Amino acid sequence: MSPAQPKSSRAAETVLVVEDEVLIRVVIAEYLWECGFKVVEAVNADEALLVLQHAELTIDVVFSDIEMPGSMDGFALAKWVRANRPGTEVILAGSPGRAAHAAGDLCEEGPMLAKPYDHQMVLDRIRRLLAGRKR
């Protein structure tokens, strides 16, 4: 099965991509959109919080960089999501040198994705998380 789906069969799931490096954010956001997801982008955790605090917007998965400018990093964002948006899945991406065990406590599917990550790996991780929620 190819990762892209026709627009007519787009999934209802929404992924919030949080990444301060614009080229990385745009490329993964476009890829996920082409795979059938609704995609919302945020430059950092502060902007992501503004998105997540809109009750009318359902975010199914937060895919966030660990290290970014602003008042909090990806770990702090993941903790906020866990405390305030139960049922929202979190995937963190960053350099393997960071505390992988800390990411493991915040993410259901293993510690984190190492950067640079493969787009297909991101897609597979999102699909596994969402499939697990539907069971």
Set down the secondary structure blueprint.
Layout: E1 14-18, H1 22-34, E2 38-42, H2 45-52, E3 61-65, H3 74-84, E4 89-94, H4 100-106, E5 113-114, H5 119-134
Parallel strand pairs: 1-2, 1-3, 3-4, 4-5
Helix pairs in contact: 2-3
Short description:
This protein has 135 residues and is an alpha/beta fold. Helices cover 41% and strands 17% of the residues. The chain has five helices and five strands.
What does this structure look like?
The protein has 135 residues and is an alpha/beta fold. It has a single domain (10-101, 111-134), classed as Response regulator (Rossmann fold), CATH 3.40.50.2300. Helix content is 41%, strand content 17%. It contains 5 helices and 5 strands; from the N terminus they run βαβαβαβαβα. It has helices spanning 22-34, 45-52, 74-84, 100-106, 119-134; strands at residues 14-18, 38-42, 61-65, 89-94, 113-114. A 5-stranded parallel sheet has the order 2-1-3-4-5, sandwiched between helices. β1 (14-18), α1 and β2 form a beta-alpha-beta unit. α2 runs parallel beside α3. The model is unreliable at 1-10 (pLDDT under 50).
Please tag this protein with its features.
5 helices; disordered N terminus; alpha/beta; 135 residues; single chain; globular; Rossmann fold; 17% strand
